[in-house]
Design goal:
By secondary structure, the chain is mostly helical. It is 49% helix and 6% strand. The chain is flat, with a radius of gyration of 21 Å.
Amino acid sequence: MLACASSLAEPDELDDAVGDVLDAFRSPGRPSEQRRHRPLLAGGDGRSGRPPAHVDVHVKGPVHLLRACLPELRARRGSVVNVTSVGGALATPHRSFYGASKAAINHLTRSLAIELAPEVRVNAVLPGPVDTPIYDDLGLSDEATGKLREDLMARTPMGRFGSPTRWPPGCAASSTTNPAG
């Protein structure tokens, strides 16, 4: 066991902690693997010192919006509908940060539904796969991307990808209509 007294939220301290862990558990004569893991530690692209903006966009953004609107939502007995993704429940190659951010908003939605009830209803819509360019940016070969798309379609009740411009009528109504007045 190795204790690391570091703040893993600070990139410099994280690098030190990773070095300490790898040094402590490296087999004798085995070179450091820190460089091999650098793209993940750098946010997946190897260029920046922080994870991609997924958490900022998919978690912090809705939280800030909810905080700003909460007094009015409570006064009007309003509702919140978070549009999230099955990516928060299903693991997808090369989308770990995206999936983690969607899992976080899924969990936050469930928790807020309990915390804010009955004044504010909080729900989420988790569409299945939607035909967007995200599938072209997974770093997979064309064959692997095709296989992934086939597998996703096979697990989708409608047997097809959704369209980013087409939403179910009930979803649009639930976000604009408040039967409680």
